[in-house]
Structures are given as structure tokens and as C-alpha cells.
Amino acid sequence: MDGATTAWLLVASALVLFMTPGLAFFYGGMDRSRNSLNMLMMSFWCLLTVPLLWAVLGYSLAFGGSGSFIGNFDFAFLSGSDIGADNGEKLVWLVYLGAFATITPALISGAVADRMKFSAWALFVPLWSLLVYVPVTFWIYGGSDSGGELTGWLSVRGSLDFAGGTAIHVNAGIAALAAVLVLGKRKGWPKEGHPPHSMPMVMLGTAILFFGWFGFNAGAGGLTDGVAVQAFANTFFAAAAGGLAWALTERLRDRHFTNLGVGSGIVAGLVAITPAAGFVSGMSSIWIGAAAGVICAFAVSLKFRAGYDDSLDVVGVHMVGGLVGSLLIGFFAKPGALGEFEAGLFNGGGAGLLAEQFIANAVTIVFSFVVTFVILKALDSTMGIRASEDDEVDGMDISQHAETAYNLGESTMAR
User: Fold this and answer.
1) Residues paired with residue 339 on neighbouring β-strands, in sequence order
2) Distance CA 318, CA 381 (A)
3) How far is CA 124 from CA 25, 60, 385, in A?
């Protein structure tokens, strides 16, 4: 890599890493005040554990070797990462991809808010990262043959995922559904309301996510070229379209605009453009973002009809948004200046790419759901994963961390 590319990937790594604290603020503000520190800690726990797991084993299994289904141990324990002939190329990729691995399990935390024991979360994160995230990542991005071509079986089949729509958002979204089915509903849900306790905190988290997502998408191609510029622009436009579409949907459906809707719509647009960011151009990003904003705005209400308690709408935004963006690649993909890949239906291609997008996501959904369900059932049978009813009433901040986010009564007395 030249110096410009190395510098960009270092910046992109920092941007992606910054997204995990952004997600913590986003989720922490959406939750009730007595549980906000717990939400922050669940994301920060991923910052503590996943990078170390990634350095020791995860990166090697996700990207090493030339197999079809899983990597090997060639890069385990940071083997081969010393600065040498490659001038740090392998190391900068390890760090950049490790930032992706860090935020992925953190996405799941929003679904299990208010009721999962933190000790269970502490074990779930490394287990899920190794047993679910690593294999799916390898299938889509992993392996390399003698010619430098990817060998993961889904990529060989021809599915496209530029920056993690399937491997990250659909993967984490369906895992969130499995988690809430094992955990069960929160006490009082859905009769009791659970409104966000701090919308400024939610919007701050949205802004950080928006900012960091430019590294998430524009860095994924690994070059400082036209594809990076296109991915950057697509991210910008899709986020705006997603936020506006959700806001307008709320206005027509509920007669008002909300900050929560705008923030959720921006994130939905960002999620949807992630798999397509380097494969589409022109107005495509706007259509993809707008479609995600509308569809996800309706998808988040499905939990009330279906009866699953997805606390902070991980399924409705991340799984559904990831699916929207991934499947729309089959319509909008435009090869040529952006690279050599199959064209979408709207650009002269056939239905082959759309079929491969469907297969890749279907495989990910089945695998992630089943393995996540098994992991949580095993943890539940051995240590229990659900907080007690008293702990849930007292709040997860006090019961799990012996802390409170706000000491307003004490401050008032002091005055």
C-alpha cells in the first residue's frame, strides 16, 4: 500500500472504532434512565474483549488460509503482523477489520436491554464472535487463493457485500431476534411504556454513528480511489434519504415528526447502503436509503403484532435494513467504473445476482439464528441469562453495576 492508502485506513479504523461509543450513547439514551449505564457498559465490554480476541484468534479464523468455510491459525496470536516487507499492510487491515468485529455484537445489546444479566453478556460476546461472526465473515470476505481471489463459499458463488450488510447487520439483527426469544419479554411489556430517557443522548449517538460510518463504508474497498469516493457519497445521501423517509412516514401515519424517528431513519439508511456502498452510483443510494427509511419505520412495529420484545428495535432497523440494502444490490448494482461484478436488473443484468443475494442472506439468517439460540440456551442452562424480577425493577445499573447514571435528588438536596 502507498502512504495515502495507509493513512486513510488508519483514519477509517479510528472512525469505525468511534462508532461503538456512538452506539452506546444511541442505545443508552433510548433506554430508561435506570438502565442507561448498563447499555453503555454492554457496548464498552465489546471494546474491551473483542479486539483482544480478534488479535489472538478471530482475525486468523476469519481471513486466514484458502478454504471455503473457515480460516486457519496462520495469523493467530498476531503471527506475521510485524512491520516488515509489507510496511504494515497486514497490521493496518487487522486493526481496521477488528473495529468491525467490535461493533457487531454490540448491535445485539439493544435487543436484550433491561433484562439480561451482565455476567451472561460478558460470556456471550466472545462466544458469539467466534462461533457466529467469524464463520459468516469468512464465507463472505475470507480466504485467498494463489491469485489473490477470495475463497469463502458465498463470495465464490457471487454474492456482494461491500462493507457488512449481510455479515454484520443481518447477522447481528437475526441474532438479536434469537436472543429476545430465549430471554422473554420485559416485565410489563407491552402494556407499560418504555420511552427513551434522553433524546439529546440518542441524537448525539446518531451523529457519532453518522460520522463514523464514512470510515465504515468508504474504507472498505481498501484504496483511496474513485470507489472510495463513491462509497463516501452514497453513505452521505442514503443516510439523509433514510432519515427524511422515516420522518415523512411518521408524519403521515402519526401526524408528527419525532427526533427518535429521524435518528432511527438515519441509521436505517446507513445500514441499508452498507452492503451496496461500492456497487451502486447515481440516484441509487437515495432510493436505497429512502426504501429503508419507509420499510424499517413499519418493521419496528411488527414486534407488537408478533409478540417478541426487541427493546431498542435491533431487528426492525438492522436486520430489515440490512436485508433491504443487500437485496436491492440485485436491482441497482452497476459494474464498470466501480469494478467487475454482475449488473443488477435495472442496469441490464439478469436475476442471477438477486438470487445470490437472497441465498447469502438466507444462509446467514438460518446459521446465525440457530447458533445464537444454542449459545444462549447453553448459557441459560448453566448460569442463567435473565436478571431477577427484583433486579429488573430496581434497574440494571444498580443491580448489575452498583452505579447510577444520575444523582439528581442528591444534587438538589445539596443545593
Assistant:
1) 336
2) 28
3) 21, 20, 10
10 Å Cβ neighbour count for 275? 36
CB-based contact 165:311 (threshold 8 Å): no
CA R_g for the chain: 21
Amino acid (1-letter code) at residue 154 = L
> Partners of 116 in the beta sheet?
386
CA distance 309 to 311: 6
Domain architecture of the chain: domains with CATH = 3-403 (1.10.3430.10)
Gap between the Cα atoms of 238 and 194, Å rounded = 29
Secondary structure in 3-state letters for the chain: CCHHHHHHHHHHHHHHHHHHHHHHHHHHHHCCHHHHHHHHHHHHHHHHHHHHHHHHHHHHHHHCCCCCCCCCCCCHHHCCCCCCCCCCHHHHHHHHHHHHHHHHHHHHHHHHCCCECHHHHHHHHHHHHHHHHHHHHHHHHCCCCCCCCCCCHHHHHCCCCCCCHHHHHHHHHHHHHHHHHHHCCCCCCCCCCCCCCCHHHHHHHHHHHHHHHHHHHHCCCCCCCHHHHHHHHHHHHHHHHHHHHHHHHHHHHHCCCCHHHHHHHHHHHHHHHCCCCCCCCCCHHHHHHHHHHHHHHHHCCHHHHHCCCCCCCHHHHHHHHHHHHHHHHHHHCCCECCECCCCCHHHCCCCHHHHHHHHHHHHHHHHHHHHHHHHHHHHHHHCCCECCHHHHHHCHHHHHHCCCCCCHHHHHHHC
Reading the chain (415 residues) residue by residue, the pLDDT tens digits are: 788 999 999 999 999 999 999 999 999 999 999 999 999 999 999 999 999 999 999 999 999 999 999 999 999 999 988 888 788 899 999 999 999 999 999 999 999 999 999 999 999 999 999 999 999 999 999 998 888 899 999 999 999 999 999 999 999 999 999 999 999 999 989 888 789 999 999 999 999 999 999 999 999 999 999 999 999 999 999 999 999 999 999 999 999 999 999 999 999 999 999 999 999 999 999 999 999 999 999 999 999 999 999 999 999 999 999 999 999 999 999 999 999 999 999 999 999 999 999 999 999 999 999 999 999 999 999 999 999 999 999 999 999 999 999 987 654 444 4
Please give the model's pTM, rounded to 2 decimal places.
0.96
